[in-house]
Write a structure and sequence with these properties.
This protein is 51% helix and 11% strand. The protein is of the alpha/beta class. The strands form 4 sheets. The protein has a 7-stranded parallel sheet, with helices on both faces. A two-stranded parallel sheet has the order 6-13. It has a two-stranded parallel sheet with strand order 8-10. The radius of gyration is 24 Å and the shape is globular.
Length: 494
């Protein structure tokens, strides 16, 4: 594998990015614009009814973000004239043919000019409706692939998946593709098109029963979990992402389009660029940190000795860009990259818990009353049986008592009972969804990614500093205490 200059590769390049308002996509777009001012065009696909709405989303949900501060400082008053020539918002939706783009002029432009297609569009909700998740994460991949085939100058399709398509595998998990119909538990009969029919039949039956929208949503969420677990995946998200990979692999056997699949682990705030600690939204591991810092987390569920595989977002983006350079114009190539840290620089749950205590002791959360929240030890529940006992004693028995008292008082406490019951059910469902990751025993082999790192280092030392993606350089305590949690409080909780 050989890499030329990344900066030179990006010059005069035309790139189409789907899911452009997402966390990772924004960082990708910012990095391209900052690293190579002479990129020719970035077409950004945005879910919008028309071009005017797409432009509004570009300005309010992408360019207005603090993430673009460095670029704005660099370009000054020339910012918008510079971007207007290079950043083209496109109204569309990958759940439709031609990605839902209805403007024939824009379509023809993209088919004529686009060199690289980067598919980041997805729903990452573990508990998504099955119809929505299958349309976006599975069949959306097919629509993007077909669109890329129509691009006359196409050099590469880069598809962002997730490392957790592995389900609950243990041990060393390699960077291998999934074949069409392959399952994690050996169950036969997985047919992606049959899954679509199962959804349509379920919706038809629910409509026939005059089910409410809420009932239909709950039923389709449950259907997704049921179908995922039937074939060995823990939730709808990773199941539909795995099927998306299967579709891409099957299609590429016939068409031989250069294809790269990026499988990141748990993505965290930026490590260094455009500045340390930028993050958007409360991500998987952050919900624990936030709950702890606010004094609302009374217990910690998970194996303290298990690794939690984390990777800063800018390292994921740099891997994506390096992979684009490495594999453009390689007909028939299909390469998978695990982008994570559990193999080369693992960090344990117990360490994350300790880092949270250090940060929130040093910088306590100020509550609504203006008082600093004091943090301390929390109860560690290192197994699901211990969690169930804890929930039974602390919540389920009191809830049962409240139910009896409420009945004796002629439903006087009904609102309180319903509210508490709803919260308990929500916690139990979330724990059920996240259990596989709280006790995850796998390690993600990143041999392909390591080869890419070495190729990047050999091509240009100067560019390696700009397109870094080696997790071995991360000091996890320093990163969490001084970068990640600081950024979480500043950009998400402010």
């Amino acid at each position: 594998m050989e890499l030329g200059s990344i900066i030179q590769f990006l010059e005069n390049r035309t790139i189409l990015v789907t899911g452009a308002t997402g966390f990772l996509a924004k960082i990708f777009v910012e990095k391209i614009l900052r690293a190579q001012p002479n990129v020719k065009k970035l077409y950004l696909l945005l879910r919008a009814p028309d071009s005017k709405s797409a432009l509004k989303r570009l300005n309010t949900e992408i360019l207005a973000k603090e993430l673009f501060r460095v670029l704005k400082e660099r370009l000054g008053s020339d910012l918008y004239s510079h971007l207007s020539k290079r950043v083209i918002p496109v109204a569309g939706d990958i759940t439709h043919e031609n990605m839902g783009v209805e403007d024939s002029t824009i379509l023809e432009e993209m088919w004529k000019e686009v060199d690289i297609v980067v598919n980041i569009a997805a729903t990452t909700n573990f508990d998504e409706r099955y119809d929505i998740s299958l349309a976006l994460n599975t069949f959306g991949s097919r629509h993007v692939y077909n669109f890329a085939l129509k691009c006359r100058k196409i050099k590469l399709l880069l598809h962002v998946s997730t490392a957790y398509v592995c389900g609950e595998k243990t041990g060393l998990i390699v960077e291998d593709p999934y074949k069409m119909g392959e399952t994690l538990n050996g169950e036969r009969g997985l047919d992606i098109y049959k899954e679509k029919q199962i959804i349509e039949d379920a919706i038809s039956q629910l409509n026939h029963q005059n089910a409410t929208d809420e009932t239909i949503t709950l039923a389709l969420k449950d259907l997704g979990i049921q179908r995922a677990r039937h074939y060995g995946w823990p939730n709808t998200y990773v199941f539909t992402k795995a099927m998306g990979e299967m579709l891409l692999g099957e299609m590429n056997e016939k068409k031989q389009l250069p294809l790269v699949i990026i499988r990141p682990t748990i993505i965290t705030s930026t490590y260094r660029e455009p500045f340390p600690g930028w993050v958007e939204g409360i991500r998987t591991v952050d919900s624990l940190a936030v709950g702890y810092g606010k004094g609302k987390l009374t217990c910690f569920l998970g194996d303290p000795d298990s690794n939690i595989d984390l990777i800063p977002a800018d390292m994921v983006v740099n891997t994506m860009i390096a992979a684009m350079v490495a594999h453009s114009n390689e007909p028939g190539c299909e390469v998978i990259y695990h982008v994570g840290s559990s193999f080369s620089n693992p960090v344990k749950y117990s360490q994350i818990k300790d880092y949270g205590r250090v940060y929130f002791t040093r910088t306590p959360w100020i509550n609504k009353d203006g008082k600093a929240v004091k943090v301390g030890d929390v109860t560690v529940l290192s197994s699901m049986p211990s969690f169930r006992r804890y929930m039974a004693l602390r919540y389920l028995l009191p809830l049962k008592g409240l139910q009896l008292v409420n009945m004796g008082l002629c439903q006087l406490l009904q609102d309180k009972y319903v509210d508490l019951s709803r919260k308990v059910k929500y916690v139990l469902r979330m724990v059920e969804l996240y259990e596989p990751y709280l006790f995850f025993k796998g390690v993600f082999d990143d041999m392909n990614t390591e080869k890419l790192r070495k190729a990047a280092e050999e091509s240009s030392d100067a560019e390696t500093d700009d397109f870094y993606f080696d997790p071995k350089c991360i000091d996890w305590e320093d990163y969490f205490v001084n970068t990640h949690l600081t950024g979480l409080v500043k950009y998400v909780l402010k």
